[in-house]
Amino acid sequence: MGELKKWREENWVRIGTDGKIKGPCGTSKNKKNPDRCLPMAKAKALSQRKLAATARKKKKAGAKGKQFVKNIKGVR
Question: Is the pTM of this model over 0.85?
Fold first, then answer.
């Protein structure tokens, strides 16, 4: 149960396709193709350009019905 607690404390945020933080994860209006979610620390460490790229990749794959999409190269 320690891992779940750590995950909850990471403060996950939703990233829009413009590379900006849009709010807490799970608040996307589009439930069929939600936005990319990342921990706040990771989102703050990445450039707006990389955030936008990973969010666009998630949206593109989500439109094809994929739920889980890997981040772009350079984002762990």
Answer: no
